[in-house]
Structure formats: structure tokens, C-alpha cells
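#help-structures
NK: newbie question, is this the right format to request a structure? protein is Leucine carboxyl methyltransferase 1
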Amino acid sequence: AGLDEADEAVRGTCEDASVCKRFAVSVGYWKDPYIQYFVRQAKERKAPEINRGYYARVHGVSYLIKAFLKKTDCNCQIVNLGAGMDTLFWRLKDENLLPRKYFEVDFPMIVARKIHNIKSKPPLSKPIMESHSGDSLLIDSHSLDSSRYSIVGADLRFSSDLEEKLKKHNLDIHLPTLLVAECVLVYMTPQQSANLLKWAASTFPVAMFINYEQVNMTDRFGQIMIENLQRRQCNLAGVEICRSLDSQRERLLLNGWETARAIDMMKVYSFLPQADVKRSCEHNILIYLLEGTHEPRSHSNCLLLETRSQK
Ligand code: SAM
């Protein structure tokens, strides 16, 4: 695929994430009243494994983000890299946990879509207005800058352009800064993601980086996922970095970060609220039982199981 086509396929992954999140939210895995405003597609049922995976991912990432906010008393900034249609800004505002400023970065085309949604949906625009003070709210089709929330259209592979745009929106490199990349680095070459990590490590004197990404995609599910993305011409340029937790840690340590820790999602899953996990385990057993009866595992089977797991 040409560069543009490959980038277009990468941009499409943002739709995948929001569709899956919305479905999991609609069947009660976690609460997010905002995701519905960002999804165009009709409600599409997802397999329980996918819902559980997203649940653990959203829970794990927000757990770490909240720990950073508490540690800094919210006197910090968050930079969400490749944020797509993420709704964290709104959820943090509802919980009274906004940092001094929350930045999002994505390709200009994705940013334009997000801004369009914000402009046309009052439940999205109102919280931004409410948290805004002063008179400098800037909003055009490719960027939005308010006092607490800002979206920047930029390509993460070009860090000097990225930095310039963020600084125009009053990024303060001296504030403790939390950078978040959720399923983003895998779409860049190892060289490009190394540059981004190096830029972040050398730009912010006090910072933490949360990276959520696939590792060890050699199992059956990993292979299915890779094939699926490749069929759509999506370039998984960074997949070779994702061999193991060690290679993830090493990448951070080699690019200017002092310490790095990595845990796999099975462990995260075991730390999740036990009532939820128990519920989904029952769920799992039910699925296997059903599979054991050799009935085809159709969507309606999943529907039944989803509903039972909610009781
Ligand atoms: N972080 C969001 C989430 O977890 O819901 C979206 C994840 S989606 C799988 C990957 C996102 O990264 C897409 O929105 C895509 O446009 C963005 N992205 C990937 N490469 C990028 C680049 N070079 N510059 C800017 N954004 C990029």
C-alpha cells in the first residue's frame, strides 16, 4: 500500500476502538456516557473476549492515569498521543479530576471529525465551555484550544512539528506531564516510535509515559489480529518491538527513560474489581459449555450470555 493508503488504514483503527468501547459500555462493562456521541456505525455486537479485553484495557489505563493525577494533586498536564475518539477528558471532568490542561493529538483528519462531533453535540461541548475561563477559546476545523482541553492535529512521526503545535496551545514543559499512547506506537516503525519516546524524555523534566500495546502476537489471537489488519493494508510497522514485556521495557530505557515497568493484561485482569471478574469468569465458563455442546457459537448465543452476565 502507498503511504497515504497505509495512513488511512491506521486512521480507521480509531473507529474500531470506539465501536468496541461503545458496545462494551452498552452492555454494562463500564460507564461512559460520552462514547455514543463519537460512533457513527450502528450498534454492532462484539464477542465477550473482546469486551473483556477492552474492559481490562480501559480500567488498567485509567487506574494509572488517576494515580498520576492524585500524586500531582492534578497540578499536571496530560498529553494523549493518538487519542482518536477517546473520552477521558469528559470522564475526568465528571470526577473532578481534570489536570491543569488535557491535550490530545491525532492525525488532522481524525481531529477534524472529533471537533465536528464536539461542535454539534452539546453534551460534549458544554463541559469544555464550563471548564473554560478567559476569552481565548479557539475552535476551527483542525484544532481546538480552551483553557483546560486542547486538540491538536499533527503527525506523531514528526516531533518538532508536534512540539511547536502543542506549545502554541500553551503546553508547559515544566509541569509534571503524563503522556499516554494506547494502541498507537505499533503503527510506527521502531525508529519512529523511538524518536517519539526520546523527544518526550528529553522535553519534559518530570514525566511518565503510559504505553498500552500488544505483545507476543505469536499466539492464535495475535495472528488473527495481525492478519486482519494486514488485510486492510494497515501497516504494523512496530510489531517487531512487541515481542515481549522485556523488549517494551528496553525500548523505553534505551530512549532516555530512567525506569520502566511492564505488566501483562492477565495480571491487570487479576487486579480488577473481583465482582466484575467473577461475573466475566462465569460468563467464560458458560461460553465453553455452550461450545462443548457443539452448537455453533452464533451472535445470539453471545447475546444471551451477555445478558445473563449482567444480573
Ligand atoms: N488511543 C485511542 C484509543 O485507545 O481508543 C485510539 C487508538 S487507535 C487503535 C490508533 C490511533 O492512533 C488512531 O486514532 C490513529 O489515527 C492514531 N495514530 C496512529 N499513528 C499516528 C500518527 N503517526 N500521528 C497521529 N496519530 C496517529
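mod (FA): yep, format's fine, and the C-alpha cells are attached above. Residues 82 and 152 are 10 Å apart (CA to CA).
NK: thank you!
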